[in-house]
């Protein structure tokens, strides 16, 4: 994974910002008017002080006039400040919405290999938590950048006009504050980057333990996992201490420098008033000047105070862009209509790792309507072979043909439209029973869904739920594992594809229901090409061809009777289930 530099982060971020440039221009105008109103107040106060510092020049009407002008200016400043913040909030959250949407789209288009090789918790951290962190940094960064830059430029001009000597002193001493802020921010960034990485690791571990809680409890691994969690928590604590230590230095350090500048300017200003009356540098002017000196340094203080958020934001933004930059599946092939189900595998080779080959020179000819059973010990490559046929992974060598055309000449989406799968691991999303079954077919009618549920023998238990097909379910324990499997089988019945893949599809349902579902499968498989992965060999006796796999090779091939007659590996597997 290539390293992303900070300047590249900003240039890419500006591409997102550019989409909202009109709103940004309006917010910039509001920022200018806000700063003008804010900087006008000290001038008004200074003139009032200069006029009323002598008793003979005091006038109630003049005082009321200054008060009215000051209230009006402050009110306008507050209004423009509100509009600026509102628009910047809107821009920020629109940008974050775009960033999060791009991240989620990427997850739907990356190869399965990426998802298999990255912890779920860390991926979720990037899409959700890291984008939130970017939002916090952006929100403060936008506000401070707009108002800060305008304030700095305007106050420099005003201070030089009032008294160029004091103005130059302020300008010359200011870099001290910038140097301190930059030094601390550099060290803070490294600490926050490490903190963000540990958070991702911790989220991944927590997600893994929560998902597999029953296994953890059954093996009494609570203490071991608590110990591992505490270790990660301590690493996060140490990284957090380092990050907060550096970030907490920023504000007081820069404020110390700024207060030092303020004291120097105030002292020299008083000397000028007393020693150089010909300069006509009055008390009210000095008051306004000191106000500007304070406002001039305030943007630097503000920027340094959000340095923590900005550095944390950059760390998170790098992680988000690392996800967005992942190579995704590019669909450039033709779409296909309905496949007949004729499939050929020629000398397939594949390995999940480049230096480890799992599938070795596998060849197979499947005619339309053939029922192919795949058996073998755990880890022999059964599911991997199905993954290659479905193009969840791309082969390293060899070729796969559907209807005499190379599989790589078809788009993945059109290929998968022709295939229906039921896996051993069930998956339901939060929604109604109807919505979960209709997931397999766009615009499915209620009648079609109910018919599919009847074919899968799920209709009976569904009608016993509180609201029948309108009952809200999800992937927790609200319904049994067997019932979840029946709903997944109903999806397949609804899709009604020409090619079927059944990976231990009936493993989680009882024997009586399994027999009924098997009848439904037999009816569905008529005239359709089917691949059946099964550990219970009694369920695949009627398959046209049984592939016996071991160590990534097809070591035996034939029907049930012929394989038993060979008295080979299949015969050993079959007989072992009855001994």
Largest sheet: 6 strands, mixed
The name of the CATH architecture of the largest domain is Up-down Bundle
User: Which percent band covers the strand fraction?
Assistant: 5-15%
Oligomerization state: single chain
- Side by side, the strands of the main sheet go 6-9-10-3-11-12
Rg to the nearest angstrom? 35 Å
Number of strands: 12
CATH superfamily of the largest domain: ABC transporter type 1, transmembrane domain
User: Which word captures the global form?
Assistant: elongated
Structure description:
This protein is 64% helix and 10% strand. By secondary structure, the protein is an alpha/beta fold. It folds into 2 domains: 6-324, ABC transporter type 1, transmembrane domain (ABC transporter transmembrane region fold), CATH 1.20.1560; 343-576, 3-Layer(aba) Sandwich (Rossmann fold). The chain has a 6-stranded mixed beta sheet with strand order 6-9-10-3-11-12, sandwiched between helices. A 4-stranded antiparallel beta sheet has the order 2-1-4-5, with helices on one face. A hairpin with a 2-residue loop joins strand 4 (397-402) and strand 5 (405-406). Helix 14 crosses helix 16 (481-495). The relative contact order is 0.08. The mean pLDDT is 81.
